[in-house]
């Protein structure tokens, strides 16, 4: 593997050194570093020194090694080339690329228009990727050998996940095995005629035998990644304990999901980031979301065909999938990425790419929006199911006439109120504190809610018992918009970042809907956008 491209006397790791990029993890042919473009400190940028390219899996920025240097220094690629050369000539490269077998010393002075020979080998030896059928056969047999622990089964059956035993069996979820079983499991697979070389997760141990990469640190629930052809392409692990980096900020929970991969091991193989498909294929309408387990749960609740990537910005792999879907008759793509697409510019960028990709392949694309109190499509659907069960229980209880008791009348008054919600415009421009609490509002640089970003969505009155406190009234208002929205209402369910106004003839009070209550704020309603008028249909 050449560490330097033929036309340059240096490689991308030399560029990373000059830019002082912080390396988080080293693999066979690449390294993960902190992204200097989006500022994320979790090592999401992959710097591939076998192909001398880079890509941030969080913000989606990518390119070649000259572009990496040029963009960060606001210069052309040509200027970057000579500036890097000057730095190398003066001995400024000392970061330690030798760990990769990469020399940072240029072999000859650059001559414009001439190619300089590359030199050096680097990286850990890797197995060529096995073909799809072999990967499927090996991983299928591996899943058959594993079991699902009681704790993991209970988690999948809990209200948080909502799966049945039959669905758990259908998807093939298993618990990761302990480390001491890895060698024997691999030997059993080999004994059954399965290929392990080139299958993600398997590698050759330093003592010469083949094994699979499971450890106590990465224990969790093993989730198959299945293609449209029904073949298992890889596996993801939902970790029992999220992995945190020592430099992660305190509010970061750490990585919850990782791929089963052995790219950091001798003769190992990278998992890549395979696209997962669940549901009927082909289908006229296909939903697109993020997260394998999320897609499986949403499919069970909605009975829809769903394609999913491992992350909101990892949408590049969808291009081939969309091409196949279009050829097989899919007409509509429903973008159902998490609701943070309304506040995170990088996530929003990934959602926009889905639209463009669908259009390129001749398919229509629509955005799915739901109650913003719930982040993912699975959370929202589980909440709807829970509400439906509660309504059924209430109908059953109310049907028992003998159980009903007369309720004494309570004196009430009409509380006037208004609802203001963030307006994202036609371009759906993300707002950093959207659907978040006061803490995130302040982190975004606002002492008070910026009224110009809001739109009046409702102006009404609510009967409230006498002597009700503001807090009790606000809770009643929020409850009104959590079950069945009022007729003629054109806004969303009341959620964090909304503004509720209580007013009468004498005063007005404004409250920011926080994640755990209501926070009094200053608000300038005359700066907010007016309520949208209804059309002739009442919408």
Tell me the overall shape.
globular
Unreliable parts:
1-6, 90-122
Q: How many helices does DSSP assign?
A: 13
Strand content: 15-25%
Structural class: alpha+beta
Strand adjacency order, main sheet: 1-2-3-4-5
Oligomer state equals single chain
Mean pLDDT: 86
Major beta sheet summary: 5 strands, antiparallel
Distance, first to last CA: 62 Å
Calculate Rg over CA atoms: 28 Å
Can you give the helix content as a percent range? 25-40%
The count of strands amounts to 21
Question: What's the quick description here?
Answer:
This protein has 539 residues and is an alpha+beta fold. Helix content is 27%, strand content 20%.
Explain the layout of strands and helices.
Layout (H helix, E strand, L loop, with lengths): L11 H7 L4 E4 L3 E4 L11 E4 L4 E4 L5 E3 H9 L3 H13 L42 H14 L4 H8 L7 H7 L2 E2 L6 H10 L10 E3 L5 E3 L7 E7 L5 E12 L11 E5 L16 E3 L6 E6 L1 H11 L2 E5 L8 H10 L4 E4 L9 H16 L3 E4 L9 H22 L13 E11 L15 H6 L10 E12 L4 H11 L18 E5 L4 E6 L4 E3 L19
Parallel strand pairs: 13-14, 13-15, 15-16
Antiparallel strand pairs: 1-2, 2-3, 3-4, 4-5, 6-9, 7-8, 9-10, 10-11, 12-14, 17-18, 17-19, 19-20, 20-21
Helix pairs in contact: 2-3, 8-11
């Amino acid at each position: 593997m050449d560490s330097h491209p033929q036309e340059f006397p240096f490689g991308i790791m030399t560029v990373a050194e000059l830019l002082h990029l912080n390396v988080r993890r080293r693999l066979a042919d690449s390294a993960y570093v902190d992204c200097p473009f989006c500022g994320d400190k979790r090592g999401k940028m992959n710097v591939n020194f076998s192909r001398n390219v880079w890509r941030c899996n969080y913000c989606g920025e990518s390119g070649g090694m000259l572009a990496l240097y040029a963009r960060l220094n606001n210069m052309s690629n040509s200027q970057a080339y000579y500036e890097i050369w000057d730095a190398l000539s003066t001995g400024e490269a000392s970061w330690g690329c030798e760990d990769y077998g990469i020399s940072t010393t240029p072999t000859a002075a650059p001559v414009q228009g001439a190619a300089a020979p590359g030199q050096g080998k680097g990286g850990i030896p890797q197995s060529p990727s096995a073909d799809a059928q072999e990967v499927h056969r090996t991983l299928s047999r591996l899943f058959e050998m594993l079991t699902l622990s009681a704790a993991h089964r209970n988690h999948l059956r809990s209200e948080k996940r909502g799966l049945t035993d039959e669905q758990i069996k259908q998807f093939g979820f298993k618990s990761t095995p302990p480390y001491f079983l890895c060698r024997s499991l691999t030997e059993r697979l080999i004994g059954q005629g399965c290929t392990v070389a080139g299958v993600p997760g398997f590698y050759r141990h330093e003592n010469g035998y083949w094994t699979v990469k499971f450890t106590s640190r990465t224990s969790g629930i093993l989730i198959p990644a299945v293609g449209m052809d029904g073949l298992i392409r890889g596996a993801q692990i939902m970790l029992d304990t999220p992995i945190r980096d020592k430099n992660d900020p305190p509010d970061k929970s750490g990585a919850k999901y990782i791929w089963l991969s052995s790219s950091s091991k001798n003769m190992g193989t990278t998992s890549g980031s395979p696209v997962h498909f669940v549901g009927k294929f082909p289908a006229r309408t296909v939903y697109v979301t993020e997260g394998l387990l999320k897609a499986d749960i949403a499919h069970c609740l909605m009975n829809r065909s769903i394609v999913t990537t491992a992350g909101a910005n990892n949408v590049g792999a969808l291009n081939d999938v969309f091409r196949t879907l279009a050829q097989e008759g899919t007409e509509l793509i429903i973008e159902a990425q998490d609701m943070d697409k309304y506040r995170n510019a990088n996530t929003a960028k990934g959602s926009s790419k889905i639209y463009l990709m669908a259009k390129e392949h001749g398919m229509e694309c629509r955005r799915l929006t739901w109650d913003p109190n719930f982040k993912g499509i699975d959370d929202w659907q589980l909440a709807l199911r829970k509400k439906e069960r509660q309504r059924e229980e209430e109908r059953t209880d109310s049907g028992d006439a003998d159980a009903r008791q007369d309720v004494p009348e309570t004196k009430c008054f009409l509380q006037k109120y208004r609802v203001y919600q963030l307006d994202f415009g036609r371009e759906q421009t993300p707002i950093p504190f959207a659907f978040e609490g006061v803490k995130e509002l302040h982190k975004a640089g606002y002492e008070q809610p910026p009224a110009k970003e809001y739109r009046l969505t409702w102006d009404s009155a609510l009967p409230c018992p006498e002597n009700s406190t503001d807090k009790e009234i606000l809770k009643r208002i929020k409850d009104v918009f959590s079950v069945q929205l009022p007729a003629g209402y054109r806004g969303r369910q009341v959620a964090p970042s909304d503004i509720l106004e209580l007013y009468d003839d004498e005063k007005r009070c404004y409250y920011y809907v926080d994640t755990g209550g209501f926070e009094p704020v200053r608000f300038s309603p005359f700066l907010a956008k007016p309520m949208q008028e209804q059309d002739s249909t009442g919408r």
